[in-house]
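User: I'm writing a tutorial on reading structure tokens. Could you give me a worked example: one chain, its sequence, then its tokens, then a sentence or two explaining what the tokens reveal?
Assistant: Sure. Here is the example chain.
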Amino acid sequence: MLSRNEASWDRIARVVIGLALIAFSLFSLQGVSSIIGTLVGLILLVTGAVGFCPIYKILGVCTDCSDRAS
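And here are its predicted structure tokens:
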């Protein structure tokens, strides 16, 4: 199972920015830029909903410090 590496504020920000980017991409952009914007928005939305970011894992970043050992 994937361990959570995003704090609540990080997850909320990702969901809000992801939804805004998807809406902007679908209604204001055209062509390839619309597709790329929508995909990036979906990635932000999914990582925010799940609470795990693979890039954070690779870089060793954890904004959810509650599960770190002392």
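What the tokens reveal: The chain has three helices and no strands. Residues 24 and 37 are 8 Å apart (CA to CA).
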